[in-house]
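Please predict the structure of the following assembly.
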Amino acid sequence: MAEPHGPAAPGPRARSGDRAALIAGAAIALLLGSLALFAPWLAPHEPERVWDPAAGRLLPPGSARLAVTLADGRTLLAEVVRPAGPGTLAWKRLGSWQRIPAEQVVSAQPINFPLGTDRYGRDLASRLLLGARVSLRVGVLAVLLALVLGVAVGAAAGLGPPWLDAVLSRGIDALIAFPRLFLVLALAALAGAGEALVVAALAATGWMEVARLVRAELHRLRGEEFVLAARAVGVPPARLLVRHLLPLAMAPVLVTAALRLGDALLAEAALSWLGFGVQPPQASWGSLLAEAQASFPGAWWVAAFPGLAIALAVLASALLADGLQDALELRGRPR
Amino acid sequence: MLFLVVSATFVALHALPGDPSDLLLDPRVPPAARQQILHLWGLDRPLLAQYGHWLSRAAVGDWGTSIVHHRPATAVLAAALPYTLLLGGAALAIEIGLALPLGVLAARRRGGAADHLLRVGSILLYALPTFWLGMMALLFLSYRWKLFPAGHTGEAGGAGGTLELLRHLALPALVLGLSGAGALLRLVRGGLLAALPDEPLRAARARGLSEARVVWVHALRRAAAPLAQLLGLSLPALLGGALVVEVVFSWPGLGRIAYLAVLSRDLPLVLACTAWSAALVVLGSLLADVASAAADPRQRAAVAEGALG
């Protein structure tokens, strides 16, 4: 936005760098979001397809092969295919040349693996794209659930009777002090594993910060004149909360939500990596890393790319939170 | 507080579907023998009775017997605790050693190139999954370039001694410290910026003290109390990070024990781990409060009150 005179009173944080954080965060988030959304159409190959279990496993990034379809229906990957005399072809597969009768070969198509293949010979780029769907879905759902839970508890503590506030605040303090991963691990492992459970476990351990924040905001707003006025006019508490208070408390909640998303993504990754989250063969960034353990330390790419994807997503959420905080504070918080 | 968390864990672990006996016992075990074994472990009694029994024993320091290790859970954890403390302490030292000077630098050069660079760097460090950082460190520093040993503690024992232990400690501590340093750096910067324009600092500058002295001594001191508290709040994250780092590097600490216990559904041990890790955090927070009070006299009364209440 081009303001003719610039911000009226440039606060200590109103700097161009912060706007850049917001824009960069939003751009990366948008990019990752659309990649995940359109993953089935963007993925170069079917994520579960094993091209050639022997010659197609653990190919480094940028590998190009020829997918040779044979008359018996098998597909094998060859490095080079060339004619070798009448009715005979020669191909180089697994580093050695072999001759095969030409009538056995139905077709040969060039095929690329931009990020290489995993230990079963599946295309890593496709799995990463499809994994983005799962990871981001888990993260977003977990944060949404945590928001609902957090706002509910926070509202109860912020507007309820003092004894309820005391009880809830103590509970929040207790849970917040807890190493999250230990708790999620115990929950997830003993209730089984899987996507729904990860969402539930992350939501169950992620709502406390939101609740604490909402409570503090409501305490701050509670004494404001417009609240007293609304009460005097007889606005019912529920309506007061939803129509008047929550919209005002939403700004900091939005910032936390962005931060929570990053945390949730990291927790999902750790959980799936430990083997208690999204289960292979379903791909999530964390489960890809879990699978990468098996081909470690030989094939760096199966571990490197999913990790970078996680880092990028968390980076986007941190930048968004950062930028949002500055943008929202800039707009004059005390109304 | 501790009690709440531990009780919640107990109920959750026991109420959830999945019977430890399924995992422990071969399905071919005859029902009578199965019943006998369950009875031996006290797993056949009602939940409330189990809880009461467990709590009364825990109160006197008996956390039950690990089903897998066949040793008291306390003994298993006591053997692991020093390793976690060592790892956590070393990581914390690295974290503070990195974040403090860099945070001060960022705050002094606020808005400058160094500040922007550090800002991006700190967010990046925060964004990298700790266990992934560990995997990459192992891959490059241990396997490729063979700078560090890969995992374990150098159990050769007496042969290498302390030096060997330190060599094995270096990489996990570095990874854990680095992954926490990003967040701490931002806190230091924020804390300093909040303290920098204050009256006493202006007074100190007016007295002709060098800028370095103003920042390092006066401003940092003003920022120290909230920073100590924030450091206390970051302990759960440190312990969670320690869990995955211990798994990556096969470091025989509390986190790895917890992970293995969960894998084998060793309920007494899982419970004990959960409780002990919570206790560590509570203890750490208490230390942070004390440190904070030491830095800020105004808080002393509050802390004393909190400790009693």
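The beta strands of chain A are 63-70, 75-78, 80-83, 88-93, 96-101, 105-113. Residues 63-113 of chain A form a domain with the SH3 type barrels. fold (CATH 2.30.30.100).
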